[in-house]
Write a structure and sequence with these properties.
Mean pLDDT: 85
Low-confidence stretches: 1-25, 30-54, 60-72
CATH topology of the largest domain: Rossmann fold
Structural class: alpha/beta
Order of helices and strands: EEHEEEEHHHEHEHHEEHEEHEHHHEHHHE
CATH architecture of the largest domain: 3-Layer(aba) Sandwich
Helix content: 25-40%
Radius of gyration: 22 Å
Shape: elongated
CATH class of the largest domain: Alpha Beta
Number of helices: 15
Number of strands: 15
CATH superfamily of the largest domain: Nitrogenase molybdenum iron protein domain
Strand order of the largest sheet: 11-9-13-14-15
Strand content: 5-15%
Length: 419
């Protein structure tokens, strides 16, 4: 198999990257100037690359941390402030910030920050939202539609200083940032800024948990954070118990296509590190793609010929991309004629999880569905609609699977006429 990585010259005329190509290539990674800037300069992270209106920000980014740094999970602290009405916070970037003892109004800025506040049942504290939240289909907005009615504080990835001041929050939570960016926003607004790390659900899960606990400690939701984290750990542990002893040769060869990156994609858009597959030890055929060819921002794409070579036993499709990925495998297409999964009717729809950083609740629910599809005997007691609603309730305290299913069609086997 011949591999190809496409690179674009970038960055102050100091970096020159050649485009390597072959007409016989079967795996591609598309790199943009914005992507390479993310990888090279920690201060310029995601704000220039993210699109809050589209699904994007893959959950696992090999070699890329949200701030260009990798702080230890326990580096934060909350201690008494210089006077009884204040507390001193050391945030996830090691910054020291003095905030009010009683926090009543907060704003979450950049990808995932508002989502974390909803996880902590802190919607009543939110003083404003970034403009794209009003038209988003993220699960937390199905759970808390009232958020859409809050004052706007500017565009995605950071808001507008004047609108932030007008909203009068006690503090700002900021993700996907650097020390310098957090300091600059605090100086421009006069509002304390607490920098968080969003982590991921693969190799930086503890980092996410630590940020969640920091946020909870500041707003008085420590008990809620403990409950959520314990529930996540329990769910992941049960998935491992159900699947860890399955022999390698008994694990179906599996592929996820149509993975949405800043919008819907075709069947050749995939995720080599797809977390739901990892949680049930699935045999992800795309897992053989070298890390150097995986683009954490724009996505990883293969050629149709490579998918035919892999010929997975089971194929999953991101439902956000169903209208773009489905036509690739409709009856009569080369893939429909060639792929064992399509011929055997083993095509299944999963919920999208990339949307202004990862929807962790969708990742976990997808893992349970993947387990039930791949190992039906191990999951015969699971009704996926009930399990998904249980997971949404764990994260949001509300049952919203019916609303999610109305939006995307829900977990299901995809019949030929649905493609």
């Amino acid at each position: 198999m011949i591999l190809r990585a496409n690179h674009i010259p970038i960055l102050f005329q100091t970096v020159s990257v050649a485009i390597v190509a072959s007409s016989h290539s079967t795996i591609r990674a598309v790199w943009t100037p914005c992507t390479i800037m993310v990888l090279l300069i920690a201060a310029f992270v995601l704000p220039g690359c993210s699109d809050s209106d589209q699904h994007g920000s893959p959950e696992h980014s090999p070699g890329l941390h949200s701030s260009g740094q990798h702080p230890t999970p326990d580096r934060w602290s909350v201690t008494p402030g210089p006077d009884p009405a204040t507390q001193t916070v050391r945030d996830m970037h090691g910054r020291t910030v003095v905030i009010p003892e009683d926090v009543e109004r907060v704003i979450g800025l950049r990808a995932g920050a508002l989502r974390m506040l909803t996880y902590l049942d802190a919607v009543d504290l939110v003083a404003g939202i970034e403009e794209p939240e009003r038209r988003s289909d993220r699960p937390y907005l199905f759970a808390f539609p009232e958020l859409r009615e809050l004052p706007l504080v500017g565009p995605h990835m950071g808001g507008d200083p004047e609108l932030l001041v007008a909203a009068a929050p006690d503090l700002l939570f900021l993700t996907f940032t650097s020390r310098g960016q957090a300091d600059a926003l605090q100086e421009r607004t006069g509002i304390p800024v607490i920098a968080l790390e969003y982590g991921n659900f693969s190799d930086e899960r503890e980092l996410f948990f630590s940020s969640l606990r920091l946020m909870a400690a500041v707003i008085g939701k420590a008990g809620r954070a403990d409950t959520l984290i314990a529930g996540i750990r329990e769910s992941l542990s049960e998935l491992e118990t159900r699947t860890s002893d399955i022999p390698a040769d008994a694990r179906p060869r599996t592929y996820i296509g149509g993975v949405s990156y800043r919008g819907p994609r075709g069947i050749t858009s995939t995720e080599p590190f797809y977390p739901p597959f990892r949680f049930v030890a699935a045999n992800n055929v795309a897992g053989e793609i070298p890390s150097r060819l995986i683009n954490p921002i724009q996505g990883t794409y293969i050629d149709i010929e490579q998918l035919i070579v892999w010929d997975p036993d089971v194929l999953f499709v991101d439902l956000y991309s169903l209208h773009t990925a489905g036509p690739d495998i409709r009856p009569g297409t080369p893939l429909a004629r060639s792929l064992t999964a399509v011929r055997n009717g083993e095509v299944h729809g999963v919920l999208p999880y990339n949307n202004y950083a990862a929807n962790y609740e969708a990742i976990l629910a997808n893992a349970w569905f993947a387990g039930k599809v791949l190992y039906p005997g191990r999951f015969d007691d699971i009704v996926i609609s009930e399990k998904a609603d249980e997971i949404f309730h764990l994260f949001f305290g509300r049952h919203i699977y019916d609303e999610i299913r109305a939006e995307y069609g829900g977990y299901r086997r995809l019949a030929p006429e649905q493609l």
